[in-house]
Structure formats: structure tokens, C-alpha cells
Amino acid sequence: MSSQPPIRLIYQPNASSALGVYIRQWYADHGYRVDTIDCRASRLARLWPAVRAFHPNRDVWHRRRWEEGLYSPRAWARNTRANGRLLDRLGGEGKILQIAKEYFPHPRYRDMEFYVFTNYSTRLACRDGFTPWRPKPSDVPAVLELEDDLFRSATHIFTAGEFLRRSLIEESGVAPDRVTTVRNGVNPRYLANPPPAIPERFVNRVLFVGWDFGLKGGRDLLAAWPAIRAARPGIELRIVGPDAAQRDAMGDAGRQPGLVWESRPVTIEDYRNADLFVLPSLRDSYGFVFLEAMSQGLPCLGADINGMPEMIVHGETGYIVPRQNPTAIAESVAAYYADESHRARMGAASLARVRERFTWDAVLGKVNAVMGV
Q1: Mind listing the pLDDT tens digit for each residue in 306-356?
Q2: Which residues share a beta bridge with 159?
Q3: Phi-psi region for residue 215, left (φ > 0), alpha (ψ -120 to 50) or beta?
Q4: Is residue 131 located within the same domain as residue 216?
């Protein structure tokens, strides 16, 4: 790939989604030269917003740090200038691919060729009622105006989900021929370690994975648990990720029979040793965790919002339920356990769907075709 222009990747390596990390690694593994630009890499870039945002209440301070660091017009201007300085130092030619929506790639962005890959938008985040990472109310109009300008100015936009593509066209004024849905890819480590076999029998274990228990729909799952347990005595719910404080905050609901709380990262074996992955999330844009579960032949249950219905085929690879509906969760879990053949059939369909649609080869093949690399 030495004859190809370098990929100038503008991203935040520590972002929780790890989207930019996956993309950078794919390009590096396929012989591309990748120049990385992180406008918040320097200590000053992180320290200054923290100082400006200081508040004696730790939770308030934490929220204001994010606003000052990324989700405000001030942050947008500051980070855009930093991107510009870093790009100018590189010089030469390159394809600019920005894996973020919180700044422009350069102060002279309107005169440049650049591409944007994003899983969500501030407009959707402000509307969904649950996303904690968003501007304060007084800054929302200005940030939305900046973000729409970014989207309309980009040479092309790549979205993981069709739901976001529609929003960009209908609400942000992006021309339909300048935005393409490319999906997301599963972590290659999971594809390199396929399940030895798809189980044919139930082991009476449901799996939940997510650090933020409430945001991922955990309260609704706990509300559904008595009905699930009544229909399937002896069933276990393994909750991987949340810390003890979140568990304790659930009170008696978090101490029901059959619950196993484990504050640790998820493993491949967790997926392989469960019957059903249940994450009725309140806002997941395009959750990688569903793809991880499917890559191990594990059917999934998710909510009817954002990317979850695009990943899970209801009745074939799992179930889609209305958001914040414990009754629907319990009914779907009961329907799954009503027929033991569901385990092998839905598990095999889940694995096949990931291999066919959700690999980085497939995703970045579409991206490269548009970028001409």
C-alpha cells in the first residue's frame, strides 16, 4: 500500500466505543500508513477544561469537565485549532478520516477534502433523554449548528446505522448521495476465536454486560426478573461489568434470587456459557457488545431503538422489545426458553450474520471505495 496516500485519522483513542482504535488497527494491519491526530492528547488540553469546570461537587465537576472538554462551542473551537496545528505539521497529502463529531478537522475545513465516520449525533443524543455526554442546554443550539455545518461540509459521511443516515439527511440537510451506511465491525479477536460448537441445550443462564447498569436497561431487566424466574425456575442472570455501588443502588431488586454480579471485563467464555444475551439498552447507538455476543453464537435481546434493530433480526437471531418495557422483556425470554431448539437455530443464525455483515473488512471496504484508497 506504499503508493497510497496516508490515512490521516482524527480520533480520540480513549473513547469508550473504541471505534477509532478498531479502524486504525485495520489500516495498520493492511499496510496503510496511518497518521493519528488527537486534539486532546496533550496534558494541557485535558487540564485546562478541568480547571475551568471545577466544582466542589464531584459529579457536577465531572459533567462540566466533559462539557468544557468536548461538548461546548468553546471546546469545538479549541479542538479544531489543535487539529489544524497537528495536520499542518504533517504536511504533504493524505486522506483525512475523522472518527468524531465534536470538532472540525481544521479551521480551513471548507477548503479541504475530509471524511467523517460516526455512530451517533448530538441531535439524537439531546433527543433520546438518556445520553449523559451532551452539551448543557444553553449550548445546544450553537453546538447543533456547528455539527450540522460539519456534516454538510464533509466530502462524505459514513454512519454505522441507517437510523443515523436518515437523521442526517432529513434533519441536518446532508445530501443523500454524501452519506453511506457501512455498519460496524466486531473486534477481530472474537472472529479469530469462533465458538467450538453452537450449544444445542440450555444451561439456564442469561448474560448482561455493561458498566453503566441503568443506562444499559438494567433496571428494566431487574423488573422483569421475577416473571422470568417464575416461568423458568433456577435460571441465573449473570451481570458483568457494574461495580458494587451500582449493585447496591438497586436495593432489594439487586438482591433477587438468581442474580450474580461480577465487576470485571467480559470474556469470550461468558458469551459461550450463556443461553441468551439480554441488554435492553436505553440509548446504545450501535453497540459492539451485541456483535461480540453474536460472534460466539449467542442470540441477543435488545431494545427497538437506534442500531439494535439493525443488528438483531427479531425471531431469527434474537428479540427486539420496546424500550423500558419489563413485560415485553419477560415475555420474550419466556418465548425463547419455550423451545430448546431456539438455542442452536438462533445461535447459528447470529454467528452467520456477524460473519456476513459485521466485519471490518466489509465495513472499511465500503469506506475505501468511497475515499478512493
Answers
A1: 999 999 999 999 999 999 999 999 999 999 999 999 999 999 999 999 999
A2: 118, 181
A3: alpha
A4: no
Query: 125, 129, 157: which is closest to 143 by C-alpha?
Result: 125
Give the H or E element holding residue 301. strand 300-303
Q: Are strands 114-118 and 259-262 parallel, antiparallel or unpaired?
A: unpaired
For residue 111, what are the contacts with CB-CB under 8 A and spacing of at least 6? none
Phi, psi of 366 (to 5 degrees): -70, -40
Task: Tell whether 150 is covered by a domain.
Answer: yes
How many CB atoms are located within 10 Å of the residue 360 CB?
A: 22
Within-domain flag for 292: yes
Question: Both 196 and 180 in a single domain?
Answer: no
| Dist. CA 155–CA 310, nearest whole Å | 26
How far apart (Å, rounded) are the C-alpha atoms in residues 66 and 88?
A: 27
How many domains does the chain contain in total? 2
Per-residue DSSP letter, 5: P
Contact 272, 296 (CB under 8 A): yes
Distance separating alpha carbons of residues 315 and 349, to the nearest angstrom: 10
Q: Is the pLDDT of residue 57 over 90?
A: no
CATH code of the domain containing 79: 3.40.50.2000
**Same structural domain, 348 and 265:** yes
Cβ-count burial 173-187 (b if 16+ within 10 Å, e if not): ebeeeebebbbbbbb
Cell numbers for 302: 435488545
Q: Which three cell numbers stand for residue 337?
A: 426458553
Whether 83 and 226 map to the same domain: the answer is no
In a domain, 1, yes or no: no
Backbone angles phi, psi at 240, to 5 degrees: -110, 125
Same domain? 218 vs 92 = no
